[in-house]
Design a protein that fits this description.
The protein has 58 residues and is of the alpha+beta class. The protein has one domain. The protein contains 2 helices and 2 strands, in the order βαβα. A two-stranded parallel ribbon has the order 1-2. Pfam families: TatD_DNase (PF01026).
């Protein structure tokens, strides 16, 4: 059996508004998704502004 989890990579937060309601709904309606989390903050590369990363992290 294979299960999945949902996470948001810090490099992706700059490109779009994250629909947290959609993520929670998908999690609640799937028996294959067993976890929801984030992948942290990444300041080494300048792919996404620190402020947007922190907002997503919260």
């Amino acid at each position: 059996m294979i299960f999945g989890s949902i996470g948001i990579h810090p490099h992706e937060v700059k490109d779009y508004k994250i629909d947290y309601d959609y993520i929670v709904n998908e999690f609640n309606n799937s028996d294959k998704i067993i976890g929801v989390g984030e992948t942290g903050l990444d300041y080494y590369y300048e792919n996404s502004p620190k402020k947007k990363q922190i907002e997503s992290f919260k």
